[in-house]
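This week, think about what follows.
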Amino acid sequence: MSQVLPEKAQRRAPVQLKQTMINRLPAPAYREDGKEAEEWYMDAEVKGLGVRVRSSGKKTYVVRYYNELSQHRKHTIGDTQRFKLEVARKVALQKQGDIAQGQDPNRDRSDMRKRGRERVVSDLGEETIQEMRD
């Protein structure tokens, strides 16, 4: 007899994701307490890449990984309507390369946000103009 795992612990086998399949993925029902539920569809081609589908119908590409402290992390690539699957796969492979070198995309993103708050918008405009000249 197979043991039924709680809904949160159930794992789905990776699937060969295709753009048309992603567009047709159904949104899961809201939980009994009214909170939003989510379903994960992991890609068989690129390990760690998945599509998260929420009850609201929002679908996002996400890379799942473990950081240097062996903590499970998720890094959002972007909305499936905005990014094609092939682009998401390339970004996922790039992020996995960064992770293999000891970087943590979520920590890097957090650090960039902190630095960004310290910068003035006019500084960014000047940098952009300088890059265009070069």
In short: Residues 36 and 70 are 27 Å apart (CA to CA).
